[in-house]
Amino acid sequence: MSGAVSDLSARMILDSRGNPTIEVDCYVDGLLRGRASIPSGASTGTHEAVELRDGGTVWAGKGVDGPVSHVNGEICDSLVGMDVADQRAIDTALIELDGTANKARLGANAILGASIACLRAAAEGSLWYHIAGSGPSSLPVPQMNILNGGAHATSNVDVQEFMVVPHGFDNFPEALRSGVETYHALKSVLKEEGLLGGVGDEGGFAPNLPRNEDGLRYVLDAIERAGYAPGDQISIALDVAAQEFCQGDGYHMDGQVLSGTELGDIYSEWLDSYPIVSIEDPFGEDDWESWIEFTEREGRRVQIVGDDLYVTNPDRLLRGIDLGATNAILVKLNQIGTVTETIEVIRMARDAGFGTVISHRSGETSDDVIADIAVGTDAGQIKTGAPARSDRTAKYNQLLRIAEQVDAYTDLF
Ligand code: 2PG
Ligand code: MG
After folding, report:
1. How far, in Å, from the CA of 74 to the mean position of ligand 1?
2. Mutational test site, ligand 1, from 359, 360, 383, max ligand atoms within 8 Å of CB
3. Nearest bound ligand to CA 150?
C-alpha cells in the first residue's frame, strides 16, 4: 500500500523479562497502519548496533525514555510525508539521520521500531507476501530451544541452548507438533530424574547438570520417548554462545580451561555421538582462528552458525565469507537496526551459499515479525525458543497461520 507517513508515535512497554522496551505506531494518511515492538538480548555481541537505554537508577537503568522521545521527535519529523511503501528510502533516511556507524545516537531500538512499523504499514495483505514480492517462499525449519543454560538460566550449564530441529516432515504443522511433543517428553524425562525446576528465558527447561554433554543425552532421550527417529525426523542444534565463557586464558567449560582447538575436539566427539546438525557460536566473537579451523574440519558434516561473530553486520559477514569462518549466519534485526539492512545481509549470505537462520532475542515481546521475515525472505530456518510462553509461541502461531497459505517445507538436513 502506498501513502504518506502522517505520524509516528512511540511508547514504553514491557518485554518478556519485565524490562522496558519500545513500541512504535505508524500512521498513514491519518490512520494507524503498523505497529512494532523491539526485543532485547542477554548474551549480546560487542559489535551489535547500540540498544539505547536511559541509565541511572530508574528501571535499573533500562528505561527507554530517550529512544521513545527520539521517535516522537526527530524520527517522526524526518519520515512524515515519505511514501510508506519505499522501505529503502525510509531506512536510508533513518541511517543518515542517526549519522553514526552503529546507530548509537538515536538507538537501534528506536530506529528499528520505526523501520518495522513502516514495513507493517506498507503491507496490504499478508506481511510475508509483501516482503517476498514475487519470490518463492517456504516455511522455515525451526530450531526449538527446549533446554536453556548459559546467560538465559541460573543453572550450572554452560551451553546456552539445546534445540530440537524437526526437519524430516512433509509440512510445518507436523514438524511443529513433533517438536512440541518432544518438549513435553523432555519434561517427563527430567521429572523422572528429579531434575525438573523452572524454565529459562526462552521457555526451555533449565536443570543443573553434571556435564554439558548430559543436555544432549536428555534431549536425545526426549526425541525417542516422543516416538520420533533421531537424525531422520528430529535432530539437535546447539547455541553454545561460547563468548559467555571465553576468558583471557581460554574457554571455561565443565570445570576445565580449554583452548579453541581443544573445545573444537569436544564438539567433534559430540558430532560422532549425537545427531547434531547445527552449532551456533562454538567460539568467541573475535576468535576467528578457531572458527576457521573448525569450519575447515567439520563444515561438511554440520552447519556452523555465526551469531555474536557476525551480529548481522555486512562487513563482518563479508570477512567470514572470505575467511571461510562459518557456513551459516544467525540473523537478528536489532543487531543491525533496519529492515533493509537485514534483508541485504540475508541476500549476501545466501549468495555465498550460507544457511540463514532468522532469530528472536532472549527478551521478547508478542511481536511476530520474524515469522513473516523468515517466510518472506525464504530464509529456510527460524530460531524462536521453546514452544511455550506467549512471547515464543506468538511466532510459531503466526507460522501456523502462514502455513494455511504456503505449503513448501524443505528438509534441509
Ligand atoms: C542468541 C540469542 C537468542 P540473546 O544468543 O542466539 O537465543 O540470545 O538474545 O540473549 O543474545
Ligand atoms: Mg546465539
Report:
1. 30
2. 359
3. 1
Cβ(244) – ligand 1 distance below 6 Å: no
Q: What is the pLDDT of residues 34-87, one digit of tens each?
A: 999 999 999 899 999 999 999 999 999 999 999 999 999 999 999 999 999 999
The tens digit of pLDDT for each residue in 347-389 reads 999 999 999 999 999 999 999 999 999 999 999 999 999 999 9
Q: Where in the chain is the domain with CATH 3.20.20.120?
A: 132-403
The model's pTM is: 0.98
Mutate to test the pocket of ligand 1, among 109, 307, 310 (most ligand atoms within 8 A of CB): 307
Report CA-CA distances (Å) from 63 to 45, 56, 237, 378. Answer: 21, 9, 34, 35
Regarding the beta carbon of 271 and ligand 1, being less than 6 Å apart is answered: no
Determine the residue type at 279: I
Please confirm, yes or no, whether 192 is among the known catalytic residues. no
User: CATH for 132-403, among 3.20.20.100, 3.20.20.120, 3.90.930.1, 3.40.50.150?
Assistant: 3.20.20.120
The single residue of 62, 332, 383, 395 carrying the catalytic annotation is: 332
Q: Three-state SS string across 30-95, please?
A: CEEEEEEECCECCCCCCCCCCCCCCCCCHHHHCCCHHHHHHHHHHHHHHHCCCECCCHHHHHHHHH
For domain 5-124, give the fold: Enolase-like; domain 1 (3.30.390)
User: Is 202 annotated in the active site?
Assistant: yes
Per-residue model confidence (pLDDT) at position 119: 98
What is residue 197's three-state secondary structure?
coil
